Amino acid sequence: MQLSFAGLAALVVAAATTAVEAVKPNPSALMSANFGMIGRWGFNQASSMYTDDVTWEPSLYSFCQSTSYEVYHIGYVKAFRDANGYPGLHLGNHCYWPNNAFPNWKSDSETGFYNLNCPSVASDIALCQNMGKKVMISFSPNDFIGNTTADNGAVTAKQLWDLYLGGSSPYRPFGTVVLDGIDIHAWNNDPNSYSDMIKTLRALMDASPRTFWLSGSPRCDYPDWTLGPNNGNRTDRILTTAPNAFDFLTPWMTASPNICGFAGNNPSGFWTQLRVWNDLAASLGIPMFPGLPTWYVEAFDQAATGDYINSTVITNTTLVTQLKTLSQFRGVSLDDASYDRLNTPCIDTKLSYSHVWYRKLMNDSWTGCLSSGLEYSGKTLVGGGVSTTRRINTIQTSGSGYFRFAGQTSNTVLVALGLLAIGGLVF
Ligand SMILES: *[C@@H]1O[C@H](CO)[C@@H](O)[C@H](O)[C@H]1NC(C)=O
Ligand SMILES: *[C@@H]1O[C@H](CO)[C@@H](O)[C@H](O)[C@H]1NC(C)=O
Ligand SMILES: *[C@@H]1O[C@H](CO)[C@@H](O)[C@H](O)[C@H]1NC(C)=O
Ligand SMILES: *[C@@H]1O[C@H](CO)[C@@H](O)[C@H](O)[C@H]1NC(C)=O
Ligand SMILES: *[C@@H]1O[C@H](CO)[C@@H](O)[C@H](O)[C@H]1NC(C)=O
């Protein structure tokens, strides 16, 4: 579908008025049971702790086969525009510059991220979709959208639609594979044009015969800076201007531990914030999946202490029962797959952390593993040890690990990324 700016603007207007509610997917179709799980894959966060590729994140399909995640948020899209004018992708060790560059793609020292050509990830996505999993791209740029003109947001929306969803382009990272939707994980404190971008995406989705999902991943402290709702002089936030754009919310209970870290300084804040998001989701009639880490991430020490909920708390306290009393709670969204795989609390089954969540979500009376395995919980390992020779305790800010595949990233961007990582992605 070719759309002019005027056409896009018309879509935005249509989205803001009637079309949005009319053709939204049915929230109950997101998961196969009352409760389910979302997993974040692609960023290979474990590479910030481990330098050897043995511990790096395996393929998407291997997770689809071995875990209970039914929805994947993959990514991230890390730049609004690369030097070629397309949104830039970060898929860690799975697809990276320059190995996966499109022919004649210009190198970019500004953002360090590129629109990439990822055929092996594409076939994994198709295999997972064949298993009934939903695979959504997560949009979380470091850079700013640039200016506040409505066209700018709409243009980005159309590009994302063409590259990942129902549109067409010679430069689709996953070729003919069509993803199931998009997640807005906008943590760069740039509200410019997000409303227009999301309204346009929604309108494009709703105009398609195929079902697409749009999720919002705000930070836990309500209202979220970028997504809203509006607060004081923060205007034009999407959760005020077109709240029905979203099909579900995954408020991240990880970003501001002093406000809402579960086991940290402020467990009451966890519940207070979650209830506010639940109330908002209830008013919109959409499900909510609190976002939680799969690991105590030492590199994110300042920001993440206490965010991690250990397996004992999940199995042997009333946590899950309490979560289920929240009307919109439909499960959890876990970040990320690479750490989940390394965190194996159940030695009898060698099951990873996400399985503990899944079993408890499915069965309130489940009391846990027969014998405990290797759980990395706080500063000490429970039940054994990960080889310390393979551990690195400092964040990688250049050359290897976390940013190994960021391409020819400029020092400025690396420093900014390092700060973001050290700050636990606070911004
Ligand atoms: C603002 O966005 C428009 C539309 O994409 C673009 O033409 C214009 O150059 C941008 N202006 C600035 C200052 O970036
Ligand atoms: C918005 O309000 C904050 C806090 O009151 C203030 O610091 C900021 O300057 C205001 N911004 C604008 C654009 O008015
Ligand atoms: C699990 O977390 C709880 C609550 O933070 C804590 O009291 C407990 O000591 C932790 N258990 C283990 C085995 O780390
Ligand atoms: C949980 O409680 C059960 C039953 O009381 C007990 O057997 C089990 O060891 C506990 N699990 C953990 C991880 O504390
Ligand atoms: C739920 O867990 C309990 C305790 O482990 C177990 O006895 C029961 O069989 C489980 N129920 C189902 C339906 O799996």
Automatic annotation (TrEMBL):
A GO cellular component annotation in the UniProt record: extracellular region
Keyword field: Glycosidase, Hydrolase, Signal
Entry-linked InterPro entries: GH, Glycosyl_Hydrlase18_Chitinase
Top-level taxon of the source organism: Eukaryota
GO MF entry, a single one: chitinase activity
Gene3D superfamilies: Glycosidases (3.20.20.80)
Signal peptide: 1-22
Protein name, entry field: Glycoside hydrolase
Species for this entry: Caulochytrium protostelioides
